[in-house]
Every structure is written in C-alpha cells, then in structure tokens.
Protein 1
Amino acid sequence: MGRNCSYCARKVSNGSRGRPPHFDWLGLLAMAAFLGSMEYVFDEGPRWDWLEDETVRYAFVMAVAAGIFFFWRVLSYRQPIVDLWAFRDRNFAIGCTLSFVLGIGLYGSVYLLPLFLGSVRGYNALQIGQIMFVTGLFQFMSAPIAGILSKKLEPRLMLALGLSLFGLGVYLNHFVTNQSSLGELFLPQAIRGVSLMLCFLPINTLALGTLPPDKIKNASGLYNLMRNLGGAIGLAMINTVIDHRMAHHMRHLLDQLTLSRNVVTSTLDAMSGRFADLLTTDPDKAALRSLIGMAQQEASVLTYADAFLLMSFVFFAALLLMPLVHRPKAAGAPAEAH
C-alpha cells in the first residue's frame, strides 16, 4: 500500500512539472492593443493635429480603454504577462525613468539633426551620413575607455557624467545657423558619441542591480520597453515642438517684413534689380517670394535650435534624480539588459 501511494505521488508530481505554465493571452492582447494604439497616437498625432483627427481620436480612446484593462489585469491576475511590481524598487523605477530620457535623446537626436541638415542646409543622404558618422566613430572609440571607467567610477557618478555630456552635446547644437556644416557640428557630435557609452553601461547596473535575481528577467523587458517608449514619445513631442515653434517664428518674422520699414523696401528693390537683370517676367513678385523664402529658412533654424535646447534641458533635469538612486551591490550590469 505504501509503495502504491509513493508511486501515485511521484506520478502526480511529474505530471504537474510537465504541465506548461498558464499563459495570460488576454493580458497579452490588452498590452498589444494599449501599446499599439498609443504608438499610433504618438506617431500620427503631430501630423494630424492630435485629437482633431478622427482616426487619432479613436486610437486614443482605444489606448485609454486597453490601458486601464491592461493595468487592472497585470495587477490582479495570478500569473500576469508582466510583473509591474518591480517598479516598487526605487532604483528600478528611477532607472526606467532615466532609460526613458535616454530614449528621447537617442532617437530624438538621430531624427532631429538629419532633418535640419536636409531641410535647412539641403544636404543629401551622403553628406548627412558623413556628419552623423562622427557620433558613431566616437562612440566606438570611447567604448574601451567607458569599460575602464565602469570599474573605477561609481555607477551613479559615471551616469551623471554621461547625462551631463549628452545634454552639453545637444545644447551645443542649439547654436546652429543656416551655414552650419561639419566644422561647426563636429564637436557636438563627438561629445554625444562619448556620452552614450558613459550612459549605457552604468544605467543598466543602477536599474537592475538592486533587484533579486529571479526578478531581473521580467524587469529587463520593462526596462528596455521604457527606452523605446521614450523614443516614440520623444519623437512625437519633437514634431509637436517643430510645428508650434515654426508657426511662432514665422509669424514673428513676417510681422517684421512690412513695407513701412526702410530696410525691407531697400532689400526688395535690390532683389528686384537682380531679378530684372536675369530677365525675370515679374521681378517684384520674384523678389517678394525670395524674401519670404529667406524668412522661412530663418524660422526653420530658430525652430530646430529651440528643439535642441528643449532636449538638452530634459537631460540636465534628469540629473536631479541622481541623488535618489542607491548604490547597487552588483559589480556589473546583468546580462539580460541591452
């Protein structure tokens, strides 16, 4: 009898171990609907004036409804698709916030500078690539130095240095003009390349270094998601800033282009004379179009300068979170972090 009971117990135990864990398909669908709808809102919102567009409005409603259900599901279900309780760890919560900020800078700077070079300077893809290559080159060159510093510097100090340098690099881009080229943009790009390596290594350690080992796998997914969300939301905010500041600067410049100002009339007369020498059909109209085009170019320069300045402010503001971070016991970043 005892041997039969022992056999039955072993059979039940083996059967329970062989049974696959329950997967929360409902939670997965809610998460996909929430993130997908939110991504659409942030991608298309700036282009279509946000909730003024019917499709964007429907996507926003779906994102809110799916988000409410998703958070209720993962916080109440016995086996949620993701474990949000990791955010109770202060280092992880702050690390995810800093990863979000890093996503804004990482994706935003790669988006904003080529847009400036193409629309204002009229550069082609090869010329833009040559300038953007500087960041990658200095990132590659600084990798060994960052590895050495990660063993000698406390992670909090190293990350603060990286955030400061990234903010400085973006701030220097704030001084762009309609004549900015590789010579003027080399230093900001180089600083930004060095700063990225100083950010990547310590931020992983700070965010995941205080979590229990069994929580790291789940937490690393949330951590990487925050960086991608930072990129998506950052790009949406950048496009919104560009639209609003462009309208503001253009309106201000056009207010200055009145015929009551002598400098405007003299400039138009000089431009009309040049177009008349070129046998233009209507030199006065051509001069006016050219002057408005110059105003549009200058408004674009001011707009991109504002966007760079705002991005640098975000990184300098992120430094205020550093005193709240605990020093992790782990010596290096977990392998799951990327």
Protein 2
Amino acid sequence: MSVPPGRRRVAVVGTGSIVSSSHLPALRAHADRVELVAAVDVDETRLDAFRAEAGDGVAGYGSVEAMLDAVHPDLVVIGTPPSLHREQTVAALKAGAWVLCEKPLCLSLAEYDDIAAAEEASGAYASVVFQHRYGSGARHARELIASGELGAPLVAHCQTTWHRDTAYYEVPWRGRWASEGGGPTMGHGIHQYDLLLHLLGPWAEVRAMAGRLVHTTESEDVSSALVRFESGALATVVNSVLSPDEMSRIRVDCAHATVELTHLYGHRNDDWVYTPAPDVDPARAAAWRAPADDVPSSHAAQLGAVLDAHDRGVRPPGSGPDARTTLEFAAALYKSAFTGSPVHAGEIAPGDPFHRAMHGDHPDWAPKETV
C-alpha cells in the first residue's frame, strides 16, 4: 500500500478492545503522521470487524510473520495478551520495525533480555505503553521535582486500589503466571508505580508483602511495598483488585510542597494539586499551577512521543533501560514479598529464579507443574 511521504506505515497486532478503544483513536489523532496499513488477529471474525471499523485499505493477516513479510511496517502496535508480547516484539524488531507494546512489555527480566538483544541486532526500538507519563500534568510535575523547585522529595504514596470480580478472572489467561506474568502488581498497579518511578527517579530497595485473599488465581490479588529511592525518599506502593471504592493516586511530599494526583484510568491538569509548605511565598506557589496546555494522559500522547523519536532516529521514551527499570521493580516486589527479605536494585541477575519468572519458583506461588 502506498503511503504519502513522511507518514509512518503502522500495523496493529491484536484487534481486541484495547486496540479498538485506545490505539485506533490514537492513530486517528496522528493521521497526518501515520497510516494504518495492516491488522493481525487469529480470530477472523474479530479481525474483519476491526478492519470494517478502521476503514478502507487495512489488510488483514492471521499471523505476525505473514504480516511482516508482506507489509514491512515502520511501527508495530501490539495489543495481545501478555504471554505473546516477547515473541511478537522480537519478531517485529528483527523485521526492522519499531514496536509500541501494551504493558507489560514482557513477563520477566529474562524475556526483557531477549528484547534488548533484538533491539541491539536490528537497530529498532520497543516501547511499552505507560500512557500516564505523557499527560501535560505529569510532565509538569516531573519538571518541578527534577529541578528542585519543590524541594527534595521526602515521602510518597502510590495507590492502585481497583476492583475486579470473579467474572473478570474467567478469561483464561488472567491471573496465571505463564500468561499474565502476575496479578495486580503486573497487570494493574504497574501504571501508577511506573509514574512514581518516573517522578522520583531510581529506586534502591524494596520490602514487600503479597496475598491471595479473595480470588482463586495463581498470582496475588493484592500487594504492598515499602520503597527507598536513591534520593533517600521513602514510599508506599499498594496494588489491589479488591477495593470497591476504586482509585488511582500518587502523593509526593517534598520539602516545599505536596503534589497529589487522584484519578482512575487517566488524568488531566486539574487532577494534579499542589499544596505549598506554610513558609512558601504565595507568588512562588502560584507558578506551580498546571501549564496552560492541557494534554490528557493517553495512548495518543505517548504515540506522539514515539513518532517524534522515530522522526529523529533516537531511542523513544519508555524503551530500553527505562522500560527495564519498571519491570525490575515488579520483580523485586515479588521477590521481597515471597522471600520475606529486602531486595536491592540490581540484585536480580541471570541465575536468580526471579529473573526467569516473577513467581521465582517459590513453592507457595509457582504453578504446581513448575515446582
């Protein structure tokens, strides 16, 4: 298919709800920069329905390999179940395409190593979808914290308290280590603590607990962690699917101000609140207010950042070491929770069972067939 010069040729892999409800609108928002040329799904009925929704000119394929051989896209957007992410990402990278993949990018640090090797060999890049980083409110807060304008970060709280019923876990791949990589730590709260790490920088130590309190899943349905950052700041992180009053929240207490974000699945500028310390000049605090532009956190905002990087030929945000840091945090949380010991950044290396799988082959948590 012919695409006008300057526009990137995009293929989507998986045509379920996340692609049709989030990625398709994001592609349409950047219609001057991209052209959707292909879609892949093993379900022919679902694929046909998506192609009808997406519009004329979108070719359909039953496998990633067939699509890559025929289309040679510039960018592949992956919205399949997590167990397929590593394989499909590596295949796209080997074909020379950049990748924007739904979270989690992969299910373990060992799988991440495969993706990193494919990046190195191909020169292409793979970004993971963490859209909450890309709203104007998040960008503004990060700039204020990083500049020191709010004073040193001291105390933080990160809360993903959502609710998922039994029917949610009747989908076969949910709640299983081999197909989802974990429970709310990997599949739900990862968005919020990724944003926390984005705001506060490198973490140093994790002490955690996890439980399987309600759902009969292989993985946890709640986890909680204490985190020490390299800066010295201390934080709590809670990931739950047991909470009737659903909320996503981050609070950072700095020396001169408290920054709070409260939302559920996405935020705008008004969701960010700055409370100055009593001795701060009101005129100074007024300058902390949200910027004039109000860019919601969204797939469209992140896609724009990836396209900007593609245009410049540089590594996109949310890829490489940046993506690995968040995945390593998840592995550390699980290791600490399951072993009862603190885990330090850089500790989980090849040979560590938590490098190969998030359950770490722990007898109380690993699938019985692997123990």
